[in-house]
Amino acid sequence: MQQFAMHVDGKDRLSSSGDWFETEDPFRGEPWAKIARGTADDVDAAVTAAHHAFTRGDWGSLTPTARGRVLSRVADGIAANVDLLAELEVRDNGKLLAEMRGQVAYLPEWLRYYGGLADKVEGTVIPLDKPGYFTFTRREPLGVVAIITPWNSPLMLLMWKLAPALATGCTVVIKPSEFTSASTIQLVKVMEEAGLPPGVVNVVTGFGAEVGSPLIDHPLVRKVGFTGSDRTGRHIGAQAARQLKRSTLELGGKSPNIVFDDADLDAAVNGVVSGIFAATGQSCIAGSRLLVQSSVHDEVVRRIVDMSRTARMGDPMDPGTQVGPVTTRPQYQKVLDYIDVAIEEGATVAVGGRPADRPECGNGWFVEPTIFTGVDNSMRIAQEEVFGPVLAVIPFEDEQEAIRIANDSRFGLGAGVWTSDISRAFRMSEQIQAGTVWVNVYRAVSFMAPFGGVKDSGIGRENGISAIDEYLETKTVWINT
Ligand code: NAD
Ligand 1: which residue has its CA nearest to atom 34? Predict the structure, then answer.
């Protein structure tokens, strides 16, 4: 079995307790690696290393232009290691190799984009209302940033925080999910081989209470960047706030994918199916509620059911596979429990609704792509995040009803609208409560486009130019002339 130590100050670090925990391969349903089980002492060592790096000449006092160039070299280093990193991701989270390769191959763009912004962070001179002073602002990095990530897209969601943090001159301690630590450790090694100084990015592995919580509490940590469930996010946000530390919270969703009868139905059907079943539905932006206009309800349902029934399941490393396993054993059970809840609530199974019993799925944690019809938006299957391959179909009559149902959710992360009416597209994008609205496309993301949630889907935005502000403090300087 492979072993992965933590990574602190450019070196492997074993847990101060000497303990390890196992990480499982969701396709084989068995452990494949041991990960060091970190403690508060390991957190302290990692934060101390990050703090030294922040104040040291080879990072903290590098010119922003030089820092940007390092990030550009690091981007090239990652680009040369896409297969290595993508395969580790698949081993841990069971997502399709093609998707993980795509995600990892896209990571360097974040470093190039934010590396390019590093020397464009400018203060301002204030045209003051009082004579006799020269007053200006400086934009300064916060210091040590804690990044806590989930298991579903470990490297991509990490990079959304890591690249802007590094570009501003901050240093970082990462706590990856206990289910998917290996790729993060390897990523940081690749970054250092490409020229990132030791201590600038550190990784502590282990469990939320044992590692994540002391990391948030550490007095030298100035900000917490978190992606994960809204339950944990609430807890982490409150813990950070108690110490007056900033936090960015990217949380869950129950995103509506809304199909009007004037839509290009071929495109809409593809967008709906990939919107929920890509990544086996384990995506914060999964389009897990299909709102479909009554006049095309039966046709759309027939087509998505046909596509789902014939989806190829199996080994995520196999290029022919379309739907992989659920990433973790507890998540597998949670998805099956939600299927029972939906049936009890009176929803109808149009396809799927059970564990996959196919030879190509072996002992893995597979659930058949599942579509429920006859769903009312008040049901739990329409209100709670399943985070699995389960779609709830809800009919609507007109635009107003679609908006009402779409917004009748405590979440507000993403939303899809499928229509050929441009005016309707504008009206819908204005009225839907969500951080992102996609029209005639679904699940598109870019380093340039701000991303985040409203309502219970989170606080703050990642990606785009303004994300850099999340890692900067403004200092105002008054000079008596
Ligand atoms: P999770 O909340 O269970 O765990 C996320 C991370 O928090 C893990 O690293 C975990 O160890 C850590 N953690 C748990 N308790 C902690 C504590 N008390 N203190 C500090 N750290 C703690 O989430 P998950 O199950 O790994 O991920 C799935 C969730 O993430 C889903 O709800 C999904 O919607 C959400 N998600 C959101 C986005 C987004 O950008 N909005 C993206 C992907 C996933």
Answer: 252
Same domain, yes or no: 411 and 465: no
Mean pLDDT of the chain: 97
- Whether residue 105 sits in one domain with residue 247: yes
Tell me the residue type at 359.
P
- What is the domain count for the chain? 2
Q: What are phi and psi of 123, to 5 degrees?
A: -85, -175
Cβ(155) – ligand 1 distance below 6 Å:
no
Residue 242 CA, ligand 1 centroid: distance in Å: 20
Residues 140 and 91 in one domain: yes
pLDDT tens figures, 33-74: 999 999 999 999 999 999 999 998 789 889 999 999 999 999
Which residue shows structure tokens 């204030």? 126
455 lines ligand 1 (CB under 6 A): no
pTM here?
0.97
Instruction: Quote the domain boundaries for residue 406.
Output: 256-439
Residue 435 in this model has a pLDDT that exceeds 90: yes
As to burial, measured by CB atoms within 10 angstroms (0-12 exposed, 13-18 middle, 19+ buried), residue 413 is: buried
The CA-to-CA distance between both ends of the chain, in Å, stands at 68
